Amino acid sequence: MKKLLLTACCLISLSSFGQKLLFGVAYYDEYMPYERLDKDIAMMKAAHINVVRIAESTWATEEPSDSVYNFTHIDRVLDAMHKAGISVIVGTPTYAVPAWLAKKYPDVLAATPWGQNQFGPRQNMDITNPHYRYYAERIIRKILEHVKDHPAIIGYQVDNETKAYNTAGPNVQKAFVEYLKKKFVTLDSVNNAFGLNYWSNRVSAWDDFPSVNGSVNASVKAEFAKFQRGLVTEFLAWQAKIVREYKRPEQFITQNFDLSWKGYSYGIQDEVDHFAAARALDIAGVDIYHPSQHQLTGTEISLGGDLARSMKGGKNYLVMETEAQGFANWTPYPGQLRLQAFSHLAGGADMVSYWHWASIHNSAETYWKGLLSHDFAPNPTYNEAITIGADFERLSPNLLHLHKKNEAAIFFSNEANTAYNSWGTPEKYNDVMRPFYDALYRMNIGVDFIDPSSDNFDQYKLIVVPALYAASDALLQRLNQYVENGGHIVYTFKSGFSNENVQVRYTPQPGVINAVTGNYYNEFVVPEHVGLKNDPFGAKDNEIKYWMELLTPTTAKVLAYYDHAQWGNYAAVTRNQYGKGTATYIGFMPGNILCEKIMENCAKEAGIDHQLHFPLITKTGTNTAGHTIHYLFNYSDTSQTLIYPYETGKELLSGKTVLQKSSLVLAPWDVKIIENN
Amino acid sequence: MKKLLLTACCLISLSSFGQKLLFGVAYYDEYMPYERLDKDIAMMKAAHINVVRIAESTWATEEPSDSVYNFTHIDRVLDAMHKAGISVIVGTPTYAVPAWLAKKYPDVLAATPWGQNQFGPRQNMDITNPHYRYYAERIIRKILEHVKDHPAIIGYQVDNETKAYNTAGPNVQKAFVEYLKKKFVTLDSVNNAFGLNYWSNRVSAWDDFPSVNGSVNASVKAEFAKFQRGLVTEFLAWQAKIVREYKRPEQFITQNFDLSWKGYSYGIQDEVDHFAAARALDIAGVDIYHPSQHQLTGTEISLGGDLARSMKGGKNYLVMETEAQGFANWTPYPGQLRLQAFSHLAGGADMVSYWHWASIHNSAETYWKGLLSHDFAPNPTYNEAITIGADFERLSPNLLHLHKKNEAAIFFSNEANTAYNSWGTPEKYNDVMRPFYDALYRMNIGVDFIDPSSDNFDQYKLIVVPALYAASDALLQRLNQYVENGGHIVYTFKSGFSNENVQVRYTPQPGVINAVTGNYYNEFVVPEHVGLKNDPFGAKDNEIKYWMELLTPTTAKVLAYYDHAQWGNYAAVTRNQYGKGTATYIGFMPGNILCEKIMENCAKEAGIDHQLHFPLITKTGTNTAGHTIHYLFNYSDTSQTLIYPYETGKELLSGKTVLQKSSLVLAPWDVKIIENN
Amino acid sequence: MKKLLLTACCLISLSSFGQKLLFGVAYYDEYMPYERLDKDIAMMKAAHINVVRIAESTWATEEPSDSVYNFTHIDRVLDAMHKAGISVIVGTPTYAVPAWLAKKYPDVLAATPWGQNQFGPRQNMDITNPHYRYYAERIIRKILEHVKDHPAIIGYQVDNETKAYNTAGPNVQKAFVEYLKKKFVTLDSVNNAFGLNYWSNRVSAWDDFPSVNGSVNASVKAEFAKFQRGLVTEFLAWQAKIVREYKRPEQFITQNFDLSWKGYSYGIQDEVDHFAAARALDIAGVDIYHPSQHQLTGTEISLGGDLARSMKGGKNYLVMETEAQGFANWTPYPGQLRLQAFSHLAGGADMVSYWHWASIHNSAETYWKGLLSHDFAPNPTYNEAITIGADFERLSPNLLHLHKKNEAAIFFSNEANTAYNSWGTPEKYNDVMRPFYDALYRMNIGVDFIDPSSDNFDQYKLIVVPALYAASDALLQRLNQYVENGGHIVYTFKSGFSNENVQVRYTPQPGVINAVTGNYYNEFVVPEHVGLKNDPFGAKDNEIKYWMELLTPTTAKVLAYYDHAQWGNYAAVTRNQYGKGTATYIGFMPGNILCEKIMENCAKEAGIDHQLHFPLITKTGTNTAGHTIHYLFNYSDTSQTLIYPYETGKELLSGKTVLQKSSLVLAPWDVKIIENN
Q: Which residues 345-384 of C are in CB contact (within 8 Å) with B?
């Protein structure tokens, strides 16, 4: 019976993007050690794969010599996929230049602070180099001209995981000085903003402006990092503009944005301004890689999804890449691949695409395995993907275009990220941000990400602001206004500390926001064996890390004091009523347990409800029919029993009705999806 | 009553150097984010600050373009300080070159073994470069010409924390070869002295002499290090000579010497020959930075002071820089800033000057905080400084020009330092020297530092010689003579091992000094789980580290044997009578507890008395009135009760009489100063 | 009586190589700080030293300027040694170039991926550089012409510890491309074999072939490493050819091969193809350095000997260098130097030569001590050498030319070594090989080494194949054939994984050998807290490290399953009957205890007998008289009692008869040598 339904479902034609859940893989015909195309497509069809991404890494195959083109691989894959009813996303191949180009114009390879890049790896070019731009534009146009009418193509990916790759040669330096001229107009402004009198760094002629490579000035380096992020934004917009000349109206343009990397997708990417760069795109794409096996928590899936969704203001997004088997320590346990796939959907993804179809037999990523191992035979991971593909196909009408509405947001800032990371502590911006994100995740409080370009602060009951190290007065005043309007804000230590030029404020700290936080400090220390007095949040474990500001309340009430012989009279956490809202200020980095307890307190203050707790993860949204969808995930190795807290609905995978308040059992690494009418 | 006295004291005019204790800060008008001068001076006056150091880091402000001068900041500070009765030390700005100079003459930036330096940080230049010298001389003369008559100036600092900064380009190499020619005359002498036959390094033409940068020859590298130290000596003498053309007779010339750095001032500086370099100066200056909070022991204050005092043969010295708030992990506990200030005086300092007045808002040292935080508001550290300034002012007649006379000395050697550090062990020369220094410190045995240029060996009852790895026969014979004359010497392992060319001696070890030590060895091993047999010094913890020489006594008596299955018949510590004195030889590096016990034994042998023990530190000297001053410090977090061991006197801070043998209580981090008539 | 015998023995003239055990030292007259030759020779004679190696490091002394020659040191040493009846091995001095050559032709210094080498250390040259070759050939010919008739010389060492020293400049790159052309003929073959389509690395013109320095392609890098090993083979053959023009028929040509280094001689040298390079030589030479004192196990002596012996197909070899005192942590305990010397003989060495005679007084190796310390006086190590020399001389007829015949072999591969080391794990090829070697050593199972060039597989009952990561189909089929013929083979994880081009196989894993292993896998994971189910080998400690292949048997029986909640149904160790033999496959890296237990199981399966166990080590061979020699070693600090398991024979050191099954006591670090008639 179920089988029949499935078969029927498969016959429904979901030919264009936006009408079905996409289940895909990256596919490299160029890398195959022998003729595989038909066999691969048959295996894809068996797994209900309905989209592949191609061509983004293989410029040298597509243009083997200067102005000699060979689109054989593209053509045969497009034709074969189309024949099989599988859609294709075509990537521009510009993030990996061919050897002949690097030989002809060695300056195509970026000059970095550590010397000029060598040919070999990808992402080694100067994205501002005119020769690079000339040849990149030419290959893009050649490919687009060639494929633009192909019916298999549903969209384009411009470049891949684009960054400025530390390009910092003389031409980039020159452009940076031009940028400074435009932004600051006079050298006096630059000297003052950046404090260049320090250590004889004052510059009196634009021509003398020294390379940033040797700079020790945090303001200069932060401005250069911002300039480099601007190069990425400009580069992607430039590519998107070219592609837009060719693409059909129903086709989309996306990119494959990646998060900052710590062996896996970890946090805010400090080399790209995702919100700005995404403006030139139609839809956000993201790659998400995460720990697995007993370390699988779903956090990075949730985080990457929340970020990608927030890039385009809450619109659904594409998971351009995520792990199938991945590294040896990522090979999923039985059930985990399913759990992961539906977790992506629960964040608002309309596509889940694995990197990649089949494991590679040469070069650098032979241990980053695809759905298939090197032997191309079915394996437990592939076999599990078959069930996912079938469920995606069957449940597409129910699960596509999940609309999310969250009451909480994390406020991040690229400027703060760069500035925080440069002041010398071993822990970085994301090490402050993540524990707050993770605490909310464990408590099942859904979040969006917002940044200084966002104009929707007021839609959130709670905004959490980690380590807003660098920010303009105007921005801080906007955040003050949010509180005055009735919002609840949570600041951590270091917020408001310096202005947009990474000039430490000389007004009382925390600068500008202290009107709202109702406290001040001018001394800070490094905590050693310090806790909170009298366990004020009931955390039992009151670990304090990284930093410790010696807070004195003005109008705020003190939620917690430090437990320290010398500094026990200073406040550690304060809360202040301001206008219609409140501001909580945390003068230190809490350990994970304490962090969650503080966030629980703040969520309650902000009036945010939440149900269940990790390892039971629940995500909610509204589908296109206007029905509420509740995802329930068991992120653990043991069965979990829960009282189903939401309204009665239908569990979509099993087709069974789930009554409110009934007892539900989730097997290890299990998922349930309940639709309420 | 006390208040009245204070006021009276303040009215005494102490206008010129040498007549009052100096309490100061480094002051950078150039770095201020807004007009602060009058307000800053008012706050300085409130803290009884009577001296500021200016101008040493800001060449680019003083000469913003080639031959364009702007002394506004210098002038306004000099005038304002003078008006306020605050003295000024003017620094030459040569340790940080302007961008225009580095652009005009890129060779100004030193070529090091790791490539050419970039513009950005300070201390990146080739101090031998003719362009650098030309422009450095010109800015020095311009400034001096401009300020020489200003009444506020009490002295000049030439350059700052000067070193050779690893300069090793072709011009330096050429100069080094000229130096070798002059020193060794023939290449045969060089080949033999340095053992250049080894690995085909023999040189047969001066023009072929290869760059030291690639050398693996310890002798060559040590000679080059000595040559580089010579560059520093020459450079400072050159600057001092220029300044001396302008300065008034009552003004002094100093430098700000720094110790070797290990996150704080740690030991002998191997890049500068302090004793040689100080000859061109009128008074020694030093910067001393040290751990704080629960890690504050006073050791580095004592060490830096003993070194600085010894640079000019026991004369009082200036603490040009020390921490106020400093790093976040240095923010002082209540009371510690006072304790530190008086500890400096107890070593013979005539000035204590903080780096720096106010925390910096940009660039690289925003977390190296001054007396004021970034908000310029009073804070606990500043408030404590107020009490120090008041006491300095009031007690200046009693405490100025403390004359110290110690019975013990540490013999150090720059040559040994370099040579020891290059032979491949992870622990360095200072890691051997410090535990011996620290042991004497904890036992309240005051020490001077002496080096191969010293001619006053005989004034000490005890000379401790750590790791004298490289030394000429003549030097060792002078040390032998010291013992023969009645001195007691303590040698550690590795002493006498190689000659002045870092050629290991082929005579029995320890070379030349074995006449005096009465022992020999020709095998050495690395200790693993070895102790001393039968706990000979009552240390209980007989930890042996780093190295282990298998000693055999000839005429010496054995104080300790190794506790080892195979090498238990070898001596570990020997003592030998020689002439009127004795020599103790320690064949290994003792752990800290054992080290102190051995030094206690040696002090007793040398007839040196000592009172109290860490955390109770006591320092003694004679003031200008010829009275003995006893400082008592409590370097701990708990109250300490002691029986006052010295003659009856007056405690200067409280004005109370302290009777000999009476019980005294020192609060945590407290200080008492007793003057005996 | 014994004395008389000794004297008699010493009178036997053993003047030419091959007729006596050689006991030697490296001797550097050039390095002596004063005239020592006669005194040194007297001390050598006292120690029965009968050979010295000279001249291999001192080109700059021999040719102090371009075409100026000075063979004084060579001549006087040759003459003096000859007079004393001590033989000489002359080394060509080419591994350390003189300063004048590096100055004249800077390109003599190799350009490496990290920049061009500097003058200073040895082994810094480009061994392919034409200038280097010209001057190297000239000095070789000059020396050979000069000494060729000298009667003291028994052989020549060409160069020293030769490698390619990472030479990778444009000329080397060019030669590499020529090599590729010859090997692969077409670029298409290269592109396919190396998978260059990946990341746009495809090359379409030979001129575009990019430098390997920047490559991320494991296949390219492995091929380049193989090419570099080929440079070493060619270079040594080139030198040997030159020397062969001069040498007399009875003289030999050797080299001083070194193992891979991990603070001591550790494993297979991945920079040299020892088997190929040794073909140009008459006899294999090796240097062996090893931990000592309580860490002395004899393993490296055994390993280095087995490797050296295997280089020339089982022929006796020369230990060109081994430690006398060595580093401070190597200074031998009493008895250890003797134990070591006889351990070398037990492996088949005909010479044991110390590096070096006397400790060096300058430069880089002053802490790598010789038989004599820096003082040239007798010391415990030298005194022990006297007894060794005497015993060598006395027992030479019994112990020379030991013939070894082992039943087991370790199969290693330079290609697998390189390939394994490049795939990203922290543990390396030798970290897999060594524990298997060490287990066999501890069990007293003698082994030979074989590699892909060996044609004698069938002579072994057991072949152990660690991590044969890269291998051609043909090689794997030869190994399959070995099993079919009746051999027993043991494969570890990763064997057969990729082909000779480091292309991962797309056939089921383990590729090609799975016909024989009777299992397959296509998933692998990183073990965390995994063991083996039910302790199948009785190891108690079932530690699993590094890697974990999820094996499924086809025809094999399962010897062990993983003890893991998710993967407990996968096999960990399998054994398969194939033809007349069996194949054991280990899907993971066992801990040392488990490794030995598995090897015990495999030895039993292969029908290999073994006696005693570490610390009692026994080695066996046949002497020239056809008698069996049993060495018994006690590698421990405590006396060991054993039942002598072999036939009755005479213990050569004591002259006493040892009866089969009698009880024998070996003192700590003791050796006994029993000859059976």
A: 359-367, 373-377, 379-381
